[in-house]
Design brief:
The complex is a heterodimer of chains A (330) and B (339). Chain A is α/β, with parallel strands linked by helices. Helix content of chain A is 43%, strand content 9%. Chain A is globular, with a radius of gyration of 20 Å. Classes of the chains: A alpha/beta (330), B alpha/beta (339).
Amino acid sequence: MEIPREKLRWIYERMVLIRAFEDRVAQEFAAGKLPGFVHLYAGEEAIAVGVCAHLTDRDYITSTHRGHGHCIAKGVDVKAMMAELFGKATGVCKGKGGSMHIADVDKGMLGANGIVGGGPPIACGAGLMAKTLGTDQVAVCFLGDGAAEQGTTHEAMNLAAIWKLPVVFVCENNLYAESTPWTYHCAAPDIASRAAAYDMPGVLVDGTDVFAVYEAAGEAIARARRGEGPTLLECRAFRYYGHFQGDAVSYRTPEEEAAYRQRDPIQRFRETVLSQGLLSEDELDAIDAAVQHEISEAVRFAESSPLPPPEDCLTDVYVSYPVEQLAFRH
Amino acid sequence: MVVTTRVLSYRQAINEALRLEMRRDPTVILMGEDVAGGATIKHIEQEGAWGGPLGVTKSLVSEFGRQRVLDTPISEAAFIGAAVGAAVTGLRPVAELMFVDFFGVCMDQIFNQGAKLRYMFGGKAKVPMVIRTMIGAGFGAAGQHSGCHYSVFAHMPGLKAVAPATPYDAKGLLIAAIRDDDPVMFFEHKMLYDMTGEVPEGDYVVPIGKADVKREGSDVTIVAISRMVHIALEAAKRLSGEGIEAEVVDLRSLSPLDEDAVLSSLAKTRRLVVVDEDNPRCSVAADIAALAVDKGFDYLDAPVKLVTAPHTPVPFSPSLERYYIPTPERVVAAVREIV
């Protein structure tokens, strides 16, 4: 599949931006600057970016607890994201969502989700909206290999199939549901083959190869836009960090990690575009530098932003509700 | 303007509210198990099979078609969650959870997704959806098809909850719920479907969050919910024969709660009985009692009495089920204790 040069630049910039964001979040978290906890996406960049390369702001995605990469690939503002992780009033969710619920509906990003398997029914709803109103919008549902075992995922795949909804299910198989290997928790030889149960195409993709993801997602999304119904993509990749920051990752061996780092998605992209003369080393380096600057600015913005005033706890629960009943006897 | 009213059943009033809102707003869709019925079966494609298990949505498919009256698989988590997703992205779905007791299989989509999205997203999203669901004992449907359980939903921030007791309120509250920009749980008591009453033609709104005094009185306030409003009215009639005039306040909305209506009636009568078919622990009834003690303590001349279901599941046998459901006799006895 021929990818326009501008799109290639975008793909590289987004992948590098996700990596830099996550590496910096890991540092800030280790320094004790972030409340709560975080699940990082580094290593899986090719999936979010290869898929979202086919989407516009009018298309929707649902995400997972590991959602920063999906946000960035969907175009959510990185400064507002960083501020959200710092719990600041300038955060994209005004400091009310945090890492696990980070969202920006204006960008079609329907939320990271603290509930494994929470997103698939919601993606069906976005698809149902498009079908009901006769638009060409699509909804992409990112889910992990852990969510592949949730009932909601299976119910949603069936619903999307019988209603021929414009939904693409992208299962990011990063090999471990928390610490449990997918080969233990999944009865099937692969997750993609489960698509057969719902009479939809199921495609196994190398999730460290952004070109492979781009091509498979392009077909699935085009199919959805044509009104031909859902597809299940299983993209295999590897998360460089643990399940969450603080996870000692005792369930993986150093050899396994080293083998996967040989297949780093960003490195692979660089090698491909350089060897084929699609982009130059100078332009890639310039993108790297711009990204580093953008991340530094984002952290500066987050650190210098104010915390939300405490009484903001009471806003945004409802569109309309008596405020004294929200405060109760506070 | 002359408003024409007719006598409709509670079932017909709900059906009419759905029909009027679907005519008015093309983004309103219905979804649920058998809401039309018989999807894909050629000879009933246009008229549907059931219109819901008790015929509440009957004939809507004939007017609005299968694209807007969607039979779903028995996958409550998927279709309730799809209603959430559709609401966030621009539709006004009305999903039917056939019996409220089924919330166990889809609660995550209701309370972790639908109820919390707006808040977690910092107010950027709205979730204008309605979940219609059937409540109540009296049908011999036993443990998994007879509960009220609205207390569970009234407890949850992000959800509104309403429980109409009359055809008039059912129509006006459902129209209000569909137009509301927040997720609303709409509780329909299955023993009220055949109850009739005057209902205006055309659309009108009963505001969410407003209680209604269904009978005025000066000696005791009886706050009641859904079918229990009629039990309270029957008790009030009997008490009147003894010279006790009870004021019956129909809550109508459980969240938000019309605290002013409860407190102003209490200020007048100085005595309070709450009648609730839901289980008593952490219930709306207990919440009303707490409200009276907290904000109405100076009005109270007697202890607050609760007449509720026992802390048990709904039993099957008629003798047991009769014991379970609050009766006018129990309400009368509770009033006599404090008047």
